[in-house]
Amino acid sequence: MSDIAIAIPPPRAWSQVLPAYSPVGETPQYTAEPRADEERVQINRRVVREQSGVYVEKNKHLTLALTNQAPNCTEPTYGKGATVQGAINLTKQEGISSVEVKLEGILLLSVTSVIVTGETEVPLFENLDVLYRKPELPGATESKRSSLFSRGPPAVSLIPAKLSGERCPSTLTFSSRIPTSYSHDGTTRPLPPSYAAHFGNVPGLSLEARYTIRITITRKGLVDRKVVVTVPIVFSPRSRPSRPALPASLSFLSTLKTSPEEWKCWETKSLARMGHEDSPMIHASLLLPQSQVYPLNQPIPFHLQIASTSSKLLAQYATVATTDVPPDSEHTFSTKTQFHPVGALSNIGNRGKIVRGAMIPNFEDPTKRSSANLAQIKVSIQRHVTVEVLGQWLQFKECFSTFTLRRCAITESSNAAPEAGMLSIAWDGRIDMTELRCGGFVGPGVRVRDFILLAIIPSDPEHGPLQPIHYLIPIRLTTDPYHEETINGTELAST
């Protein structure tokens, strides 16, 4: 068989072989839903995973069963746009004239003090269903019934009942959908998650986003008797990052070599006090995953490096995580603190210290609580809660999490490699979030935001030549890690 020779043009001649393309016009405007002159050809829905558990609340008046819950759940939980479905089993049916179910959400700010007492309540939504109403006796008119409510909201009797009859059924079912948003003062926002904060340093001040199912059973007589049963529910709109996280099993060095674009470096340095301008400084570099969006149920890896021209200054931090243990051992610190006020109320019950308007959190190495003059390093989650009280915005800060440090070697491949003439210490670490159930949100008179706090405190923070470092990096926290499915019948929103 004879060989066949195929002539392949050189790379420079490829442009002569390829056909010429016409200029591309403007990109069309895309919309989530088809326009009038468009049609949807195909759509891929994410898998909906229904829950098989049932939450039961029982008292002497009734038994409430809520479906579509996690097995063995201790509280009913719902996501964005979820439907609350359940059944009410009445203990006694005699004399019942009506049964109502109200699903509602409110945002409540309470203040109780010697100076002022009051609360601000913002209704988020209210769904009212009349499950049963006994027919009115002959001769009763709508005007007579409405007059009873002339000074209050519209008469409940005007709302159509799902069932009627002389005797109330023993079991009533209901279904009510949680809205995805609410409107207040002309602004539409997503519903905030269930949230409660009690600011212990300011007695009597609390903030709560509350969602409840309220069941009202009315029995007619000379005086109407009402039984009201309130069951709190947890509204937790699910969210997830738009990209997967770095595997926790991989070291910082291995991921830096293979995927350097997955890390972002944040740099800061200490400030000298007046009269100590020539003192050597501390330069800090903190590397975090690039996205700044992290799931609540996964640790956040980080790499920390501090550098200085002074070996004596750097030596203060050399034993932060590795005193009397091998150099490659891990050490875990607890950073749970209470809410501390900053601003107008910073002098009320404040157990911390204020430095340039920022709180120095009260934290310490649990193995050295008897040593008061040791340098300290902290990498943790700090939540800022800003509330409006009597027309004035007040900010509170809370630190909570545990963080683990592990000494590691300095590598030239690191983006945070020290400059010439500087000595460095480096740690690999992770932040484990504790007691956090939701991310930040914005509502009427309230803002909740999350940060990663890098705190580097010298051995003498009050009188030493260097001021403490408090460096905040804004982040967003999601309820779930990256995946392609839904939970509890609702889609997960990518953050």
How would you concisely characterize the structure shown here?
By secondary structure, this protein is mainly beta. Helices cover 4% and strands 44% of the residues.
Structural category is: mainly beta
Could you tell me the mean pLDDT? 76
From the spread of the alpha carbons, the general shape counts as: elongated
Q: Assembly state here?
A: single chain
The amount of helix comes to under 10%
Characterize the largest beta sheet: strand count, sense, and whether it forms a barrel.
7 strands, mixed
**Which stretches are low in confidence, meaning pLDDT under 50 for 5 or more residues running?**
11-15, 140-157, 321-331, 342-371, 411-417, 486-491
* Topology, number of strands: 32
Q: What percent strand? A: 35-45%
Rg calc: 31 Å
**Tally of individual helices:** 4
Q: What distance lies between the first and last C-alpha atoms, to the nearest angstrom?
A: 63 Å
How would you explain this protein's 3D organization?
The structure is a single chain. This protein has 495 residues and is mainly β. The chain has four helices and 32 strands. It has helices at residues 14-17, 142-147, 252-258, 311-315, and strands spanning 48-49, 53-58, 62-69, 77-78, 83-90, 96-112, 117-133, 161-164, 171-177, 181-184, 187-190, 195-198, 205-219, 225-235, 239-240, 263-269, 283-289, 293-295, 300-308, 330-334, 340-342, 353-355, 358-360, 376-389, 392-399, 402-408, 423-432, 441-443, 446-457, 469-478, 486-487, 493-494. The strands form eight sheets. Strands 4, 6, 7, 8, 12, 13 and 14 form a seven-stranded mixed beta sheet that branches. Strands 18, 21, 24, 25, 28, 29 and 30 form a seven-stranded mixed beta sheet that branches. A six-stranded antiparallel beta sheet has the order 16-17-19-27-26-20. The longest helix is centred in the middle third of the chain and has 7 residues, at 252-258. The protein is elongated, with a radius of gyration of 31 Å.
